[in-house]
Amino acid sequence: MNHTKNDIYTRIHTVLVEQFEMDADSISMDAKLRDDLDIDSIDAVDLMVELKSFTEKKLAVDDFREVRTISDIVDAVHKLAQENSTAT
Amino acid sequence: MTIPKSIDKQWRLFATGFSFTVFGIGAFFIAIGLLLFLYPIPFSKTKKQIWTRRTISFATRFYVRMMRAFGLLSFEFKNIDRLGNSGELIIANHPSLLDVVFILSVVPDACCIVKEALWRNPFTFGAVSMAGYISNNSNGPELVDKASKTIKTGQSLIIFPEGTRTSNLEQLNFQRGAANIALKAACPIRPILIGCEPMTLRKHESWYQIPVAPPLFTIEALDALVIKDCIDTNRPSVVQANHLNQYLQQKILSELQVRKLVPKDESINK
Question: Which fold does the domain A5-87 belong to in CATH?
Answer without folding.
Answer: 1.10.1200
